[in-house]
Amino acid sequence: MSIIVHQFPCLSDNYGFLVRDDATGLAACIDTPEASVILRELAALGWKLDLILNTHWHPDHAGGNAEIKAATGATVVGPAEVERIGHAPDRIVAGGDQVMLGQTRFEVIESGGHTLGHVAFFDAADHVAFVGDTLFALGCGRLFEGTPQQMWDSLQRLAALPDDTRVYCAHEYTASNARFALSVDDNPALKARTGDIFAARERGEWTVPTTIGVEKATNPFLRAPQLAGRLGLTGAADHEAFAAVRAAKDSFKG
């Protein structure tokens, strides 16, 4: 049992992901940031689209649902909040559910905070997670709808996945995240990683996917409790330390 992940840029800084189950040849699209690009990539690959898996309702994640469904007949699967984009999913899922793509099983992980109903999709057999806008390389999503406690809990669910899990986040934000991370954390592992990131971006290379282990070691949002002292929050609860890091990023101008 295995999958192939095909990654490609969409819009200004999104990534699109097409996933193929080797056993059956069926494919899924993770979110629909740009329908025309996704359909072009499908055609070039010759893959049969069976599912659209939405992580949340934002237009740069679900805005292409209707066009791609009309072109392919794919079934739209996602949280109930996707209805806010204009059409309810064909199948509504939440944390604890499972979705089958051929013989590949995706576990649905509750990951609200960026939006209230945000979910991630985890293929435990292949150690692959599609996390939308909850976790980024060296970052996390803004709290447009949820609370710091909700987002911290969501990040902890993702951090509990195996360290070698490949994490496919939806945006190329890593260089700006790295500049912020260096402003709040003097972790030597972070310094080494950011040097590699800046060099990769200079060469025009992608920084996605990352891994759970790398993020646990270097991402300031996952390391928030260790940074509490630097932020003047000694003794703060973990979610309070996280809230302080998120607030600092929201106002960061670097």
Secondary-structure element pattern, one letter each: EEEHEHHEEEEEEEEHEHHEHHH
Q: Which percent range describes the beta-strand content?
A: 25-35%
Q: What is the annotated CATH architecture of the largest domain?
A: 4-Layer Sandwich
What is the strand arrangement across the widest sheet?
A: 1-2-3-4-5-6
Provide the structure class: alpha/beta
Q: Identify the CATH class of the largest domain.
A: Alpha Beta
Whole-angstrom Rg: 18 Å
* Average pLDDT over all residues: 96
The number of distinct helices, counting runs of at least 4 residues, comes to 9
CATH topology of the largest domain: Metallo-beta-lactamase, Chain A
| Low-pLDDT stretches | none
What's the story with the biggest beta sheet? Answer: 6 strands, mixed
In CATH, the homologous superfamily of the largest domain goes by the name Ribonuclease Z/Hydroxyacylglutathione hydrolase-like
Instruction: Estimate the global geometry from the Cα principal axes.
Output: globular
Cα distance, first to last residue?
44 Å
